[in-house]
Structure prediction request, 296 residues.
Amino acid sequence: MKEKYSGISIPELSLFKKGKVRDVFDLKDKLLFVASDRISAFDFVLPSLIPEKGKVLTQISKFWFEFTSLACPNHFVTDDINKYPEYLYKYKDKLDKRSMLVKKTEVIPIECIVRGYISGSGWKDYKASGKICGAKLPSGLKESAQLEDVIFTPSTKAEEGHDINISFKEMQKRVGTELALKIKRVSIELYQKASLFALSKGIIIADTKFEFGLMEDDLVLIDEVFTPDSSRFWPIADYAPGRSQASLDKQFVRDYLLSTEWDRKSAPPELPDSIIEQTSKRYQEIFHLLTGKKKL
Prediction:
């Protein structure tokens, strides 16, 4: 099995933020994003690492940042280590393929979720209330059904613990009506653009989440985009409404954990080698299918 990467220490740089998966370093005018092979589920960072995961997240985000740049500017600068500050060259082996330099932005503290299909927490919400995050839907929908109209369901962005679903009205109160409307419009446009492309590759993007920042009042797409950590990817060949779907994303790990006796409150268990290996393969497969690249 390939080498697993838990994180990096760079004494020359201040740690700006340690996320569940990414370590972010401060370069004064920019940030250095380094994606580890850590994986989180149910608000816990699992003790197991997924080989190559950080490389997939970085390289698939780079692909989508370039693909969607006309629809929305983004914070990506480069992932070419030869263009990094010289003092980082000695970390080349650790940074290669799993890091990128990005512009600094004023982060908008909202998770921007777009759903084209009914699944996951949305399906649970619909079964209980006939709605998803307050959005009323037709009765009689099946699990994994395609929604007649794509819906935008924002949530708070929690540093720790659960994000909390909020109404669009609440989002308007928090960020202002004009900005909220722009974020909603751009989020749906990004989803539709990427979904059409993914369909041409045999993949359904069931839902996804975005994060945005501001640079001199301009809206900028940040963090990660259309990765198997932030999106649900379903092979069209296996798709059938009325059940959960085969997936090429993190849902595979969630489903495994739900099959165990773990209470999702205490420290999570180690993943079996077979689950680690299958998860790594799924992440790499979605990268290859969407980007057309044979190697990371």
In short: The helical segments are 53-67, 92-95, 120-129, 168-175, 177-200, 251-258, 273-291. Residues 107-249 form a domain with the D-amino Acid Aminotransferase; Chain A, domain 1 fold (CATH 3.30.470.20). The CA atoms of residues 186 and 226 lie 14 Å apart. The first strand starts at residue 14 and ends at 18.
